[in-house]
Specification:
With 73 residues, the protein is mainly α. It has 4 helices and no strands.
């Protein structure tokens, strides 16, 4: 039995031509968080490397401004 192949997801930002991840748009940023408020990896979200860095930066800013939780129980 081999390991099942994963389907490559495409970057949401590249598809919809979004140039900036706004830290105030919490509904959009929650797409990139797990139910336990962890940041999802590129493999799970399908983001390209540059947009994943942008998302992580926006999520951390939103956490620091108390717009998003650091942890969720």
């Amino acid at each position: 039995m081999g390991i099942p192949q994963q389907i490559k997801k495409s970057c949401v930002f590249c598809q919809e031509k979004i140039s900036y991840a706004d830290y105030k748009d919490t509904q959009f940023l929650r797409r990139f968080m797990s139910p336990h408020a962890k940041i999802l990896s590129r493999a799970r979200t399908g983001n390209c490397a540059s947009h994943q860095r942008m998302v992580v930066r926006a999520l951390k800013r939103a956490r620091h401004m108390a717009l998003l939780p650091f942890v969720s129980t």
